[in-house]
Amino acid sequence: MSKINDLGIAKLIYDGKTTELPVFEGSEHEKAVDIRALRKETGMITYDPGFVNTGCCKSDVTYIDGEKGILRYRGYDINDLAEKCEFIDVAYLLVHGALPNEKQHAEFSSNLNLHSLLHEDMRHFFDAYPDHAHPMATLSAMAVSLSTFYPELDDISLQENIDYKVTRLLSKLRTAAAFSFKKSIGHPIVYPKRSLKYCENFLNMMFWNPVNDYEVDPVLAKALNKLLILHADHEQNCSASVVKMVGSAGANLYASISAGICALWGPLHGGANQHVIEMLQRILTEDEGDVHRIIERAKDKNDPFRLMGVGHRVYKSYDPRAKVAKQMCKDVLATMGVNDPLVDLAQKLEEAVLADDYFAERSLYPNIDFYTGLTYRAMGIPTNMFTVMFAIGRMPGWIAQWLEMREDPHGRIGRPRQIYTGHAQRPVI
Ligand code: CMC
């Protein structure tokens, strides 16, 4: 696809010299100034901590309009995908660029099952971690460990092996995630089953045990499919950028994804879903359910505290994923007959945020992490597994972004510059 229009030139005038910089736009008319020649022409670099205003690539994968609250994968609206697709269709779409037909869907599903077992030696890794190990640490270790079991797939020129890598990562890391949960509660692990679909298989590995037989509830399987679709990609976010940065050095896909999992773990990124629940629990126990005290803390410039699950770098209106997640949370709780005081509290907190000038002036709204944790909680998934769920969902996005980067003929190693502000040269005394 890669639709680009040249729009002429922008002029930078500095110190009496005019430098001409090309301007172009993408398929949704977002404009960019191409500054690649800036340093050569002027000796200057651009300065943009946090990459607030820096485009690092042209991409066909995901489109976001943060002002209008639009999110599309490969041109399809997130609401449409969440309503009509299974997670594996969306994974296929992100990686291959088109939704699968029935035959492709069946093949992909069967391949995911074929690769779902972990090598038995990897199973023993779980025994070496303490019970309280955070499952994000284990997941990242398992991702990079896959490269030791399948080193023949490290060769990036072997394009025909990409499907194997993709299915191995999607399938085996889901299995590893369920194993890490079983390990943390001291229960025997449950192997994946050929007869179950991707999300059903995960739920079975999480909740089946030898004394309590477990039947996958279709409501939960549907909810999980939707949640993973909401997580599936978000263009050049922190973890995707990490995956690409590591991959740009020539590191293999497993190593790149392992690094991305670590980035996602951070509380300002995917880790926020765990912190939202912990914050709500603290409001309930320490502040007797009074949301205003915590709002005042979040607004206090002398307090580093931030409201978890609120605000976003790109969305300056309601996060479209949060809208879907909020409705889904209500539906899952109603169907399962769960009455969770944290949900009422979350709604109160959201109302207080939306009514407060501080948040309105800064365009801060609930983000995806505000309601997804509450839904995972209702499904029986423990709090420290929430970010793992996000990682399983984000896997196809990371892979799609990594592949696009690798296939880009203009791709180069990621290597930002800096303005040095330290000592001038000085002698050692
Ligand atoms: N609570 C209170 N104030 C906030 C918050 C918040 N959650 N988020 C931003 N602000 C304020 C911030 O203090 C600043 O105020 P001022 O202009 O007076 O200095 C202003 O809003 C802009 O904030 P920023 O830090 O410049 O924004 P950013 O784009 O660098 O950060 C963010 C985005 C998501 C890290 C931030 O909003 C945040 O820390 N949110 C809470 C953590 C969270 O929920 N993260 C999940 C993000 S969505 C899922 C994902 O990306 O994985």
Features:
429 residues; mainly alpha; three-stranded antiparallel sheet; 6 strands; 52% helix; globular; binds carboxymethyl coenzyme *A
Q: Could you describe the 3D structure shown?
A:
By secondary structure, this protein is mainly alpha-helical. Helices cover 52% and strands 7% of the residues. It is built from 18 helices and six strands. It has helices at 38-42, 78-84, 87-96, 102-114, 120-128, 135-149, 162-184, 198-207, 218-231, 238-248, 253-265, 272-286, 291-299, 320-336, 341-354, 357-361, 368-378, 386-407, and strands at residues 5-14, 17-25, 31-33, 62-65, 70-73, 76-77. The strands form two sheets. The protein has a three-stranded antiparallel beta sheet. A hairpin with a 2-residue loop joins strand 5 (70-73) and strand 6 (76-77). It is globular. Bound molecules: carboxymethyl coenzyme *A (CMC). Residues 50, 237, 268-270, 272, 298, 306-313, 362, 364, 367-369 line the site of carboxymethyl coenzyme *A.
- Percent helix, as a range, is 40-55%
**Helix/strand structural class:** mainly alpha
Q: Strand portion, in percent?
A: 5-15%
Broad shape: globular
Order of helices and strands: EEEHEEEHHHHHHHHHHHHHHHHH
Write the layout of secondary structure elements.
Elements lengths: L4 E10 L2 E9 L5 E3 L4 H5 L19 E4 L4 E4 L2 E2 H7 L2 H10 L5 H13 L5 H9 L6 H15 L12 H23 L13 H10 L10 H14 L6 H11 L4 H13 L6 H15 L4 H9 L20 H17 L4 H14 L2 H5 L6 H11 L7 H22 L22
Antiparallel strand pairs: 1-2, 2-3, 4-5, 5-6
Helix pairs in contact: 2-9, 3-9, 3-18, 4-7, 6-7, 6-11, 7-8, 7-18, 9-14, 9-18, 10-11, 10-18, 11-18, 12-17, 14-17
Bound molecules: carboxymethyl coenzyme *A.
